[in-house]
Amino acid sequence: MAPSKSFDAEAALDYLLLLISNSEFKPDFHATAVAAEIASANNAQKKFKKIVEQGGKYKLVKGKVVAADAEEDEDEA
Q1: What is residue 11's predicted lDDT score, i.e. its pLDDT?
Q2: Residue 70 has what DSSP assignment?
Q3: Helices and strands (DSSP H and E) totals, the chain
Q4: What superkingdom does the record give (predicted)?
């Protein structure tokens, strides 16, 4: 049976980022780097940060996904 609605990648990404922003965990960038064949955990974190911040709705602060308009002292990943 064919899907009744076409896939909306932007809506899916927004939902995933919303889910992550409401979760109580930090990603394991070391394990991610190994699994994704990325040179280092730092590079894996930078890639994640770029994806998170691309849409302008979220940012990565101290390893946590938060709303872009959230008040934080430092915008550090």
Answers
A1: 92
A2: -
A3: 3, 2
A4: Eukaryota
